[in-house]
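Duplicate of #3305? Posting structure anyway:
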C-alpha cells in the first residue's frame, strides 16, 4: 500500500498540472480534421486532436514506440528510450533557429476508458546540457487515446508549447499549429502504412 501511494504521488507531481480532458477554455487555432488549440497558464499549453479509424491497441503500438519517433515524426532527428522509460528526443528546427531537445519520463496511465501515455521532465533529467541544442527543461504533456468505437479512436496530443531560447514570440502560434498537424498527420500515415503491410 505504501509503494502504491508513493507511485500515485509521484505520478501527480510529474504528470499533474496539465489541462484535464474536459478543459474547455482553449483558444482555437485550427478547427479542421485536426483540431488545434492553446491556453496560457504557467506555460503555453497546446492540444491537437483527431479521430482515427484504428483501435487503441493499434495506435498505442506506434505512440509507445519512442525509439522509432525519428522514423515516424518528420521533425524528430533523434529518439531513444531506456528501460526506465526515460526518453531523449531531439527536434530539427529550420534555419536560423537552434534545434531543440528534451529528456522526459514516460508513464502509461488509465483514466476511465482512456489510455494516457504521459511524459514529463524534471530537474534531475536536466543536469547535462548540450550547448548545440536548446533544452526544453519544462517539457510535459500526454498522448490520450479515447475509444469512440472498437475500431475508431479519438487521439489527442497535449504538450507544453514553451520553446525557450531564440524563438520569436510572434511565431509561436504558427509553430504550434505546424507541430500539431505534423504529429497527428505523421501518426495517421504510419498507422495506414502498418495496416497496408
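Output from current build:
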Amino acid at each position: 500500500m505504501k509503494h502504491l501511494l508513493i507511485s500515485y504521488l509521484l505520478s501527480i507531481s510529474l504528470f499533474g498540472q496539465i489541462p484535464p480532458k474536459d478543459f474547455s477554455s482553449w483558444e482555437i487555432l485550427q478547427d479542421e480534421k485536426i483540431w488545434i488549440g492553446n491556453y496560457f497558464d504557467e506555460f503555453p499549453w497546446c492540444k491537437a486532436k483527431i479521430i482515427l479509424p484504428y483501435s487503441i491497441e493499434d495506435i498505442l503500438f506506434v505512440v509507445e514506440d519512442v525509439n522509432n519517433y525519428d522514423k515516424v515524426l518528420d521533425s524528430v532527428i533523434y529518439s531513444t528510450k531506456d528501460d526506465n522509460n526515460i526518453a531523449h528526443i531531439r527536434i530539427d528546427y529550420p534555419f536560423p533557429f537552434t534545434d531543440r531537445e528534451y529528456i522526459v519520463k514516460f508513464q502509461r496511465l488509465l483514466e476511465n476508458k482512456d489510455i494516457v501515455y504521459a511524459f514529463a521532465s524534471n530537474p534531475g533529467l536536466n543536469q547535462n546540457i548540450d550547448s548545440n541544442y536548446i533544452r526544453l527543461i519544462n517539457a510535459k504533456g500526454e498522448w490520450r487515446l479515447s475509444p469512440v468505437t472498437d475500431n475508431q479512436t479519438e487521439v489527442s496530443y497535449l504538450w507544453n508549447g514553451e520553446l525557450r531560447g531564440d524563438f520569436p514570440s510572434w511565431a509561436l502560434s504558427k509553430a504550434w499549429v505546424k507541430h500539431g498537424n505534423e504529429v497527428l498527420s505523421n501518426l495517421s500515415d504510419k498507422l495506414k502504412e502498418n495496416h497496408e503491410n
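Confirmed duplicate; merging threads. The helical segments are 2-15, 56-63, 69-72, 172-196. The first strand starts at residue 27 and ends at 31.
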